[in-house]
Write the structure tokens for this entry.
Amino acid sequence: MARLRKLYKENVVPLMIKKFGYNNSLAVPKVEKVCLNMGVSDAKTDSKSLDAAKKSLALISGQQPIVTRAKKSIAGFSLREGMFIGCKVTLRGERMYEFLDRLFNLAIPRIRDFQGVSLNQFDGMGNFTVGLQEQLVFPELEYKEAGKIQGLSITIVTSAKKDEEARQLLAYLGMPFKKEASLSSSNIEA
């Protein structure tokens, strides 16, 4: 069992029940999936850049990514419908918890001049998206293997109905939010 899943079951569920007054442990919000998306602007002219992005995403996630295609043509970007534009991965279960543990404790703190994750990135329905400017913050990747530095979008989908519940859930799990806006009980020892 992943360390973060154990933390969720043993510590986070009782704290969430106490804070929000849920009737039982099944009503407590949980992380349902994590979606990783890497857009590759050079993919339309250079197929090697798409292969490098796929390799990087596979190393980061531990799962083979799928290639995404443009849904419609956009003349301003010289993009036609059906062209390759990036790759994505959806993580669930144990891989999801292991990825979140590495993200919260290894990758995000390695970001240069890191002040904490902003609380303004919730979508109003309990989902949280964070964008990384470079994929090299993950310890699995080396500069030589990564090829070109790419950005990475990470969406954490929760079963929470409100942003406040999702914010508290992620804080209890260890998301390093900004200090002045961090929640009081975010430092839980496993």
In short: The domain at 3-40+88-175 is CATH 3.30.1440.10 (50s Ribosomal Protein L5; Chain: A,). The CA atoms of residues 136 and 143 lie 7 Å apart. Residues 181-186 have pLDDT under 50 and may be disordered.
